[in-house]
Amino acid sequence: MLCMTSMAALPDEPRYQIKTVCEQTGIRPVTLRAWERRYRFLNPGRSDGNYRLYSERDVALLRWLKDQVDGGTAISAAVAKLKDLRRRHEWPEAPAVMPPPEAKGQNPPPQMAQKLYRALVTHDQPGAARLLRASQADFDIAAVCLHVITPALVEIGEAWHAGRIKIATEHFASQFIRGWLMALMHAYPFRPGKPRVLVGCAPGEFHEIGALMFALLLRREGYRVEYLGQDVPVDDLVSYARTEHPALVCLAAGNPRSARDLKDVESALARLRPRTRFGFAGRAFDLQPALRQQIPGKFLGPDVVLALSTVRDLLGV
């Protein structure tokens, strides 16, 4: 039953998982996480497993923000309006809301990540495929990438460095995940009229899973994504962009040497007409944030979800 009440009177006890909140508000998980990181207007609680928990007041607040955005207000302006109200110790008028159902039981991502790790290190392909399908059914694909696949691969890398697994096992795991991501990316169709985006890895960069995850999320959004893979030569890339006219080129760098090889990309692309924008990301820029200031172009963000939001802002769609 719908209820109308004062937002200030709504319970602020953290209760609901992000999946439930998104079902009730109509906000996609990737969008909600990006809003939270960029504008910091919510302070969700945490479960024993360190997952976000939202209150009924949070749900009402998010519904109000979505109403503002759906009505043509930019999210930045809506958040500014909210913060102005809160500075005056006021709340927005609460929209009519349907109380969210209790969160459904499910294996949390860390548990799924551990199961995926065990399946991969034992070369259990059917088991790994089942776990990925189950994760995809329970969580947004961005959450699967960030909180299931990435931790499993990090643990595999650490196990290899420690001598607990063979290099063949590490290669098997990487190629299995690469194949799954690639198949999923190609399952998403292009949307007519969406901008064209080229995604790949910096020169000398051979760790491509992060770039491939990003390409997958862009394709899911409907962008006309071309994934170029590992070790993309800058001169060849610029020559290709000159004939194909992408709206945006995104390159990932995992080490500082590869990152520094990107210093001339922005200036080369800026000379093209129509102009092609340049964005970069990767572990190198996370480990050494000062590198972000040394590379002309747009730093997309420390993870694929925030990078996706940055692309939306860059391209205006």
Condensed summary:
By secondary structure, the protein is an alpha/beta fold.
Task: Describe what this molecule looks like in 3D.
The structure is a single chain. Helix content is 54%, strand content 9%. The chain has 317 residues and is of the alpha/beta class. The strands form 2 sheets. It has a 5-stranded parallel beta sheet. Strands 1-2 form a two-stranded antiparallel sheet. β1 (45-46) and β2 form a beta hairpin. α2 packs across α15 (304-315), α5 (109-121) runs antiparallel to α6 (125-138) and α5 (109-121) crosses α7.
Instruction: Count all strands and give the number.
Output: 7
Number of helices: 15
Kindly report the average pLDDT value: 86
Q: How many domains in all?
A: 3
Radius of gyration: 21 Å
Structural class: alpha/beta
Gross morphology: globular
Low-confidence stretches: 1-5, 97-105
Strand content bin: 5-15%
CATH superfamily of the largest domain: Cobalamin-binding domain
Strands across the major sheet, in which order?
4-3-5-6-7
Write the layout of secondary structure elements.
Elements: H1 18-25, H2 29-39, E1 45-46, E2 52-53, H3 56-70, H4 75-87, H5 109-121, H6 125-138, H7 141-161, H8 167-187, E3 196-201, H9 209-220, E4 224-229, H10 234-244, E5 248-252, H11 256-260, H12 265-270, E6 277-281, H13 283-287, H14 291-294, E7 298-299, H15 304-315
Parallel strand pairs: 3-4, 3-5, 5-6, 6-7
Antiparallel strand pairs: 1-2
